[in-house]
């Protein structure tokens, strides 16, 4: 593999002509999963900031062109080619996967849906209709991303954590996971839950509140089952009761039927 660190150290001397061949190699590394935005070191996730820096160079040196399918994008980006041997199901032309996305064997996209550059989607995972996997988001094995769910992406600042969804997690329809939140193995996020980097998660099982860690991340524990809830807040309006939406952990472990997550 090319020494991309060395390239970044000399980035001020790069030209479009010298950069494009290097960029082509880099995207192939992203597509194969050899290079990824975040990797696990023991129980902790480490952001490989240099990967983000390189992606940003791809935007910088790209020129806007019209592709044969009528789409208009930087010529350094465009659509990822998916070949039959990858065993990835992209079941309609209304599914768009930008070049530079890793797709594990058996990944399925239902139409319409979208995955942005730098994302990593591991084997056996499902991206359902109207779902978004944002730039640099990391999705584990056998994850289900429900219809209309948003898995946020982040390129800048380069040190910011991407959203990470670990193996065997379930993200319910219409949920939003953003700002570097981590959903640990086997967790179930019910329909319509919003989790951001600053959203406290109320753990009703352990009578505690999960707040951002020292890295500014909200971490949903393994096998937690999270549903939408509300928390009463103080109001200065006479006769008006106010509440804000909060995610609530109602149990740990065990199987939960999808329809149970839709009921109050």
Structure description:
The structure is a single chain. The model has no long low-confidence stretch (mean pLDDT 92). The chain has one domain: Hexapeptide repeat proteins (UDP N-Acetylglucosamine Acyltransferase, domain 1), CATH 2.160.10. The protein is globular. It has four helices and 26 strands. It has 264 residues and is an alpha/beta fold. The strands form five sheets. The chain has a ten-stranded mixed beta sheet, with no helix packed on it. Strands 6-9-12-15-18-21 form a six-stranded parallel beta sheet, with no helix packed on it.
Overall structural domain count: 1
Assign the CATH superfamily: Hexapeptide repeat proteins
| End-to-end distance | 52 Å
**Share of residues in strands:** 25-35%
CATH-defined architecture? 3 Solenoid
Topology, number of strands: 26
**SSE pattern:** HHEEHEEEEEEEEEEEEEEEEEEEEEEEEH
Brief overview:
With 264 residues, the chain is α/β, with parallel strands linked by helices. The protein is built from four helices and 26 strands.
Features:
single chain, about 260 residues, UDP N-Acetylglucosamine Acyltransferase, domain 1, about 30% strand, ten-stranded mixed sheet, six-stranded parallel sheet, 4 helices, alpha/beta
